[in-house]
Design a protein that fits this description.
The chain has 57 residues and is mainly alpha-helical. Helices cover 49% and strands 0% of the residues.
Length: 57
């Protein structure tokens, strides 16, 4: 799974016709061409550490 940065995916925002099917196609084309701006998603270990430090004492 890839999480795209919506602020940087301007190709969809500027489309004159907006449907889920068209948006999905644009996202697929951007990903296939290597131009899909991704958001960093922490790995499982990092998520566990974040939960540990977020707990109140």
């Amino acid at each position: 799974m890839i999480v795209a940065n919506p602020m940087q995916v301007k190709a969809i925002a500027h489309a004159s016709i907006k449907t889920d099917k068209i948006d999905a196609g644009v996202l697929a084309q951007l990903h296939a061409s290597g131009f899909l701006p991704q958001v960093w998603v922490p790995d499982e270990r990092t998520e566990r550490l974040r939960r540990l430090v977020a707990r109140p004492n």
